Protein backbone atom coordinates (compact mmCIF):
# COMPACT_ATOMS: atom_id res chain seq x y z
CA UNK A 1 0.00 0.00 0.00
CA UNK A 2 1.32 3.43 -0.95
CA UNK A 3 2.37 5.76 1.85
CA UNK A 4 0.68 8.67 0.06
CA UNK A 5 -2.75 9.46 -1.33
CA UNK A 6 -4.53 12.07 -3.42
CA UNK A 7 -6.84 14.45 -1.61
CA UNK A 8 -8.76 17.64 -2.33
CA UNK A 9 -7.46 20.05 0.31
CA UNK A 10 -8.04 23.66 1.30
CA UNK A 11 -5.74 25.97 3.26
CA UNK A 12 -7.99 29.00 3.65
CA UNK A 13 -11.61 30.02 3.50
CA UNK A 14 -13.02 31.32 0.25
CA UNK A 15 -14.58 30.33 -3.05
CA UNK A 16 -14.20 27.03 -4.88
CA UNK A 17 -10.74 28.10 -6.04
CA UNK A 18 -9.29 27.50 -2.55
CA UNK A 19 -9.59 23.73 -3.05
CA UNK A 20 -6.70 21.95 -4.75
CA UNK A 21 -5.72 18.34 -5.41
CA UNK A 22 -2.53 17.33 -3.59
CA UNK A 23 -0.55 14.20 -2.88
CA UNK A 24 -0.30 13.93 0.88
CA UNK A 25 0.59 11.30 3.48
CA UNK A 26 -1.91 8.48 3.78
CA UNK A 27 -3.53 8.42 7.24
CA UNK A 28 -2.69 5.59 9.63
CA UNK A 29 -4.64 3.84 12.35
CA UNK A 30 -3.72 5.43 15.69
CA UNK A 31 -6.23 3.86 18.11
CA UNK A 32 -7.48 0.33 18.68
CA UNK A 33 -11.00 1.46 17.72
CA UNK A 34 -9.89 2.93 14.38
CA UNK A 35 -10.52 1.60 10.91
CA UNK A 36 -8.79 2.59 7.68
CA UNK A 37 -11.19 2.95 4.75
CA UNK A 38 -10.30 3.21 1.09
CA UNK A 39 -12.84 5.82 0.09
CA UNK A 40 -14.77 4.97 -3.06
CA UNK A 41 -17.14 7.93 -3.12
CA UNK A 42 -18.20 10.86 -0.95
CA UNK A 43 -21.32 12.93 -0.70
CA UNK A 44 -21.05 16.59 -1.72
CA UNK A 45 -23.17 18.38 0.86
CA UNK A 46 -24.29 21.98 1.42
CA UNK A 47 -22.33 21.84 4.68
CA UNK A 48 -19.17 21.37 2.61
CA UNK A 49 -19.49 24.62 0.66
CA UNK A 50 -20.63 26.43 3.81
CA UNK A 51 -17.53 25.23 5.70
CA UNK A 52 -15.33 26.14 2.73
CA UNK A 53 -16.79 29.62 2.40
CA UNK A 54 -17.09 30.49 6.08
CA UNK A 55 -13.80 29.07 7.29
CA UNK A 56 -15.58 27.22 10.08
CA UNK A 57 -13.30 24.25 9.46
CA UNK A 58 -10.19 25.67 11.06
CA UNK A 59 -8.61 25.17 14.44
CA UNK A 60 -5.37 26.67 15.71
CA UNK A 61 -2.83 24.78 13.62
CA UNK A 62 0.28 26.11 11.84
CA UNK A 63 -0.01 28.61 9.00
CA UNK A 64 0.42 25.92 6.34
CA UNK A 65 -2.19 23.61 7.90
CA UNK A 66 -4.90 22.33 5.58
CA UNK A 67 -8.18 20.54 5.94
CA UNK A 68 -10.17 18.05 3.87
CA UNK A 69 -13.89 18.58 3.41
CA UNK A 70 -16.52 15.88 2.97
CA UNK A 71 -18.70 14.84 5.89
CA UNK A 72 -19.80 11.43 4.63
CA UNK A 73 -18.55 8.66 2.40
CA UNK A 74 -18.54 5.04 1.32
CA UNK A 75 -15.63 2.68 0.91
CA UNK A 76 -13.87 -0.60 1.63
CA UNK A 77 -12.16 -1.31 4.93
CA UNK A 78 -8.42 -1.88 4.53
CA UNK A 79 -7.40 -2.26 8.20
CA UNK A 80 -9.15 -2.51 11.57
CA UNK A 81 -7.93 -1.78 15.06
CA UNK A 82 -7.73 -4.57 17.62
CA UNK A 83 -10.90 -3.42 19.44
CA UNK A 84 -13.10 -3.59 16.33
CA UNK A 85 -14.73 -7.01 16.07
CA UNK A 86 -17.95 -6.27 14.16
CA UNK A 87 -16.16 -5.20 10.97
CA UNK A 88 -13.27 -6.69 9.03
CA UNK A 89 -11.03 -5.83 6.07
CA UNK A 90 -12.95 -6.06 2.83
CA UNK A 91 -16.27 -4.92 4.30
CA UNK A 92 -18.11 -2.23 2.33
CA UNK A 93 -19.18 0.55 4.69
CA UNK A 94 -20.71 4.00 4.85
CA UNK A 95 -20.42 6.67 7.52
CA UNK A 96 -20.85 10.30 8.55
CA UNK A 97 -17.54 11.58 9.95
CA UNK A 98 -15.07 14.42 9.57
CA UNK A 99 -14.92 17.44 7.32
CA UNK A 100 -14.27 19.83 10.21
CA UNK A 101 -11.15 21.19 11.90
CA UNK A 102 -9.00 18.45 13.36
CA UNK A 103 -10.84 15.64 11.60
CA UNK A 104 -10.26 15.21 7.88
CA UNK A 105 -13.26 14.41 5.73
CA UNK A 106 -13.75 12.14 2.73
CA UNK A 107 -12.57 14.21 -0.24
CA UNK A 108 -9.57 11.87 -0.23
CA UNK A 109 -8.53 8.36 -1.24
CA UNK A 110 -8.27 7.12 2.37
CA UNK A 111 -10.01 7.98 5.61
CA UNK A 112 -9.44 6.88 9.23
CA UNK A 113 -12.39 6.91 11.63
CA UNK A 114 -13.69 5.17 14.72
CA UNK A 115 -15.05 1.83 13.55
CA UNK A 116 -18.08 2.18 15.82
CA UNK A 117 -19.24 5.08 13.61
CA UNK A 118 -19.27 3.05 10.38
CA UNK A 119 -22.03 0.71 9.22
CA UNK A 120 -22.25 -1.71 6.33
CA UNK A 121 -23.63 0.06 3.27
CA UNK A 122 -26.74 -1.23 1.50
CA UNK A 123 -25.86 -4.28 -0.57
CA UNK A 124 -28.29 -3.23 -3.29
CA UNK A 125 -26.41 0.00 -4.07
CA UNK A 126 -23.03 0.63 -5.58
CA UNK A 127 -20.60 2.90 -3.76
CA UNK A 128 -21.47 6.02 -5.76
CA UNK A 129 -25.22 5.73 -5.31
CA UNK A 130 -24.81 4.80 -1.65
CA UNK A 131 -22.65 7.91 -1.05
CA UNK A 132 -25.72 9.99 -1.88
CA UNK A 133 -27.42 8.92 1.33
CA UNK A 134 -25.61 8.99 4.70
CA UNK A 135 -25.85 12.68 5.64
CA UNK A 136 -29.30 13.35 4.18
CA UNK A 137 -30.78 10.04 5.31
CA UNK A 138 -29.55 10.64 8.87
CA UNK A 139 -30.65 14.30 9.00
CA UNK A 140 -34.05 13.55 7.51
CA UNK A 141 -34.47 10.60 9.90
CA UNK A 142 -33.89 12.82 12.93
CA UNK A 143 -36.21 15.47 11.49
CA UNK A 144 -39.06 13.10 10.62
CA UNK A 145 -38.88 10.28 13.16
CA UNK A 146 -37.33 12.03 16.17
CA UNK A 147 -38.44 15.68 16.00
CA UNK A 148 -41.76 15.68 14.12
CA UNK A 149 -44.88 13.83 15.16
CA UNK A 150 -46.04 12.79 11.71
CA UNK A 151 -49.02 10.46 11.59
CA UNK A 152 -51.16 9.02 8.80
CA UNK A 153 -53.08 11.92 7.34
CA UNK A 154 -50.87 14.67 8.83
CA UNK A 155 -50.37 17.63 6.50
CA UNK A 156 -46.62 18.11 6.05
CA UNK A 157 -44.83 20.84 4.12
CA UNK A 158 -41.27 20.17 2.93
CA UNK A 159 -39.35 23.30 1.99
CA UNK A 160 -36.74 22.47 -0.64
CA UNK A 161 -38.53 19.25 -1.54
CA UNK A 162 -36.39 18.47 -4.60
CA UNK A 163 -33.09 18.80 -2.72
CA UNK A 164 -30.99 16.19 -0.99
CA UNK A 165 -32.83 16.38 2.32
CA UNK A 166 -36.19 17.09 0.80
CA UNK A 167 -36.39 14.11 -1.54
CA UNK A 168 -35.51 11.70 1.28
CA UNK A 169 -37.92 13.36 3.72
CA UNK A 170 -40.77 12.98 1.24
CA UNK A 171 -40.07 9.25 1.03
CA UNK A 172 -40.00 8.89 4.83
CA UNK A 173 -43.28 10.81 5.14
CA UNK A 174 -44.88 8.72 2.40
CA UNK A 175 -43.96 5.59 4.38
CA UNK A 176 -45.75 7.09 7.41
CA UNK A 177 -48.88 7.86 5.40
CA UNK A 178 -48.63 11.64 5.73
CA UNK A 179 -50.04 14.03 3.16
CA UNK A 180 -47.16 15.94 1.62
CA UNK A 181 -46.66 19.31 -0.01
CA UNK A 182 -43.28 20.60 -1.16
CA UNK A 183 -41.93 23.96 -2.27
CA UNK A 184 -39.91 23.92 -5.50
CA UNK A 185 -38.40 26.43 -7.93
CA UNK A 186 -39.57 25.15 -11.30
CA UNK A 187 -41.52 22.67 -13.38
CA UNK A 188 -38.86 19.94 -13.43
CA UNK A 189 -38.57 19.99 -9.66
CA UNK A 190 -42.34 20.02 -9.30
CA UNK A 191 -42.60 16.88 -11.43
CA UNK A 192 -39.81 15.29 -9.39
CA UNK A 193 -41.45 15.77 -5.97
CA UNK A 194 -44.81 14.61 -7.28
CA UNK A 195 -43.15 11.44 -8.57
CA UNK A 196 -41.80 10.80 -5.06
CA UNK A 197 -45.23 10.96 -3.43
CA UNK A 198 -45.97 14.63 -2.76
CA UNK A 199 -49.54 15.51 -3.63
CA UNK A 200 -48.89 19.24 -3.97
CA UNK A 201 -45.91 21.06 -5.48
CA UNK A 202 -45.86 24.78 -4.67
CA UNK A 203 -43.69 26.88 -6.97
CA UNK A 204 -42.71 29.51 -4.42
CA UNK A 205 -41.40 32.01 -6.99
CA UNK A 206 -44.84 32.25 -8.57
CA UNK A 207 -47.27 31.27 -5.79
CA UNK A 208 -48.14 32.49 -2.32
CA UNK A 209 -47.07 29.53 -0.21
CA UNK A 210 -49.28 30.35 2.78
CA UNK A 211 -52.35 30.77 0.58
CA UNK A 212 -51.64 27.52 -1.25
CA UNK A 213 -51.36 25.73 2.06
CA UNK A 214 -54.67 27.12 3.31
CA UNK A 215 -56.42 25.93 0.16
CA UNK A 216 -54.82 22.50 0.43
CA UNK A 217 -55.27 21.84 4.14
CA UNK A 218 -58.52 23.75 4.76
CA UNK A 219 -56.90 25.38 7.78
CA UNK A 220 -54.26 27.99 8.60
CA UNK A 221 -51.27 25.92 7.46
CA UNK A 222 -49.55 22.57 7.64
CA UNK A 223 -49.38 20.39 10.74
CA UNK A 224 -45.63 19.98 10.23
CA UNK A 225 -43.23 22.27 8.37
CA UNK A 226 -39.73 21.06 7.50
CA UNK A 227 -37.45 24.02 6.76
CA UNK A 228 -34.39 22.78 4.85
CA UNK A 229 -33.65 26.24 3.39
CA UNK A 230 -33.21 28.43 6.47
CA UNK A 231 -32.47 32.13 6.93
CA UNK A 232 -35.29 34.22 5.38
CA UNK A 233 -37.26 31.04 4.72
CA UNK A 234 -37.07 30.16 8.43
CA UNK A 235 -38.85 33.44 9.19
CA UNK A 236 -41.54 32.74 6.60
CA UNK A 237 -42.02 29.20 7.86
CA UNK A 238 -43.70 30.43 11.05
CA UNK A 239 -46.60 31.56 8.86
CA UNK A 240 -46.77 28.17 7.12
CA UNK A 241 -47.50 26.14 10.26
CA UNK A 242 -51.05 25.74 11.53
CA UNK A 243 -51.80 26.45 15.21
CA UNK A 244 -50.46 23.64 17.44
CA UNK A 245 -48.20 22.59 14.58
CA UNK A 246 -44.49 21.72 14.53
CA UNK A 247 -41.68 23.56 12.71
CA UNK A 248 -38.43 21.60 12.22
CA UNK A 249 -35.33 23.49 11.05
CA UNK A 250 -32.01 22.01 9.92
CA UNK A 251 -30.16 25.16 8.82
CA UNK A 252 -28.49 27.46 11.34
CA UNK A 253 -30.49 30.68 10.97
CA UNK A 254 -31.01 33.88 12.96
CA UNK A 255 -34.14 33.75 15.07
CA UNK A 256 -36.43 36.14 13.17
CA UNK A 257 -37.81 39.22 14.91
CA UNK A 258 -41.33 38.67 16.19
CA UNK A 259 -41.28 34.94 15.59
CA UNK A 260 -41.31 34.12 19.28
CA UNK A 261 -44.61 35.98 19.63
CA UNK A 262 -45.98 34.16 16.59
CA UNK A 263 -44.84 30.78 17.89
CA UNK A 264 -46.33 31.43 21.33
CA UNK A 265 -49.65 32.75 19.98
CA UNK A 266 -50.07 29.76 17.66
CA UNK A 267 -48.79 27.20 20.18
CA UNK A 268 -46.06 26.09 17.76
CA UNK A 269 -43.45 23.50 18.66
CA UNK A 270 -40.16 24.68 17.10
CA UNK A 271 -37.42 22.05 16.89
CA UNK A 272 -33.92 21.86 15.44
CA UNK A 273 -31.71 19.17 13.91
CA UNK A 274 -27.90 19.42 13.79
CA UNK A 275 -26.32 16.04 13.12
CA UNK A 276 -22.80 17.50 13.34
CA UNK A 277 -23.12 18.58 16.97
CA UNK A 278 -22.45 15.11 18.48
CA UNK A 279 -19.27 14.84 16.41
CA UNK A 280 -17.98 18.28 17.37
CA UNK A 281 -18.97 17.79 21.03
CA UNK A 282 -17.52 14.26 21.22
CA UNK A 283 -20.88 12.76 22.19
CA UNK A 284 -20.06 9.07 21.76
CA UNK A 285 -23.47 7.72 22.74
CA UNK A 286 -25.30 10.01 20.34
CA UNK A 287 -22.92 9.01 17.55
CA UNK A 288 -23.63 5.35 18.24
CA UNK A 289 -27.35 6.14 17.88
CA UNK A 290 -26.64 7.80 14.55
CA UNK A 291 -24.69 4.77 13.35
CA UNK A 292 -27.66 2.60 14.28
CA UNK A 293 -29.85 4.85 12.10
CA UNK A 294 -27.49 4.22 9.18
CA UNK A 295 -27.97 0.47 9.71
CA UNK A 296 -31.74 0.92 9.69
CA UNK A 297 -31.61 3.08 6.59
CA UNK A 298 -29.53 0.42 4.83
CA UNK A 299 -32.31 -2.05 5.58
CA UNK A 300 -34.92 0.28 4.12
CA UNK A 301 -32.86 0.68 0.95
CA UNK A 302 -32.36 -3.06 0.54
CA UNK A 303 -36.10 -3.64 1.01
CA UNK A 304 -36.83 -1.14 -1.77
CA UNK A 305 -38.40 1.42 0.59
CA UNK A 306 -35.94 4.27 -0.04
CA UNK A 307 -34.25 5.44 -3.24
CA UNK A 308 -31.60 8.16 -3.53
CA UNK A 309 -31.62 10.36 -6.62
CA UNK A 310 -28.15 11.29 -7.90
CA UNK A 311 -28.15 14.59 -9.78
CA UNK A 312 -24.53 14.34 -10.92
CA UNK A 313 -21.25 12.55 -10.26
CA UNK A 314 -18.00 14.52 -10.26
CA UNK A 315 -14.28 13.90 -9.89
CA UNK A 316 -11.91 16.03 -7.78
CA UNK A 317 -11.71 18.69 -10.49
CA UNK A 318 -15.48 19.05 -10.63
CA UNK A 319 -16.17 19.62 -6.93
CA UNK A 320 -15.89 23.41 -7.17
CA UNK A 321 -18.59 23.61 -9.84
CA UNK A 322 -20.72 21.18 -7.82
CA UNK A 323 -20.42 23.45 -4.77
CA UNK A 324 -21.62 26.40 -6.86
CA UNK A 325 -24.55 24.39 -8.24
CA UNK A 326 -25.61 23.40 -4.73
CA UNK A 327 -25.30 26.93 -3.41
CA UNK A 328 -27.43 28.28 -6.24
CA UNK A 329 -30.14 25.60 -6.08
CA UNK A 330 -29.35 24.06 -9.47
CA UNK A 331 -29.48 20.42 -8.36
CA UNK A 332 -32.16 17.82 -7.71
CA UNK A 333 -31.41 15.11 -5.18
CA UNK A 334 -27.74 14.58 -4.46
CA UNK A 335 -24.27 15.28 -5.84
CA UNK A 336 -21.56 12.64 -5.40
CA UNK A 337 -17.77 12.75 -5.65
CA UNK A 338 -16.40 9.56 -7.22
CA UNK A 339 -12.90 8.97 -5.89
CA UNK A 340 -12.19 5.54 -7.39
CA UNK A 341 -14.25 5.72 -10.60
CA UNK A 342 -12.99 2.38 -11.93
CA UNK A 343 -14.19 0.57 -8.80
CA UNK A 344 -16.98 2.61 -7.24
CA UNK A 345 -19.83 2.49 -9.73
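Sequence proposed for the structure above (345 residues):
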Amino acid sequence: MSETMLALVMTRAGGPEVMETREIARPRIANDTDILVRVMAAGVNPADWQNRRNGAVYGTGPRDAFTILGIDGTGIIEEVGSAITHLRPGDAVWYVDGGYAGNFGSYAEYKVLNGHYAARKPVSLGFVEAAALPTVALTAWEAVFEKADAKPGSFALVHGGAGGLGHITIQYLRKLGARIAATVSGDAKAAFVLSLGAELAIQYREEDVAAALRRWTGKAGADIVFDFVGHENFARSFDHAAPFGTLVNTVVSPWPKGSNDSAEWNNLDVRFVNIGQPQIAGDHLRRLRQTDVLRRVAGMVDRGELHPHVDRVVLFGGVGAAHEALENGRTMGRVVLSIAPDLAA
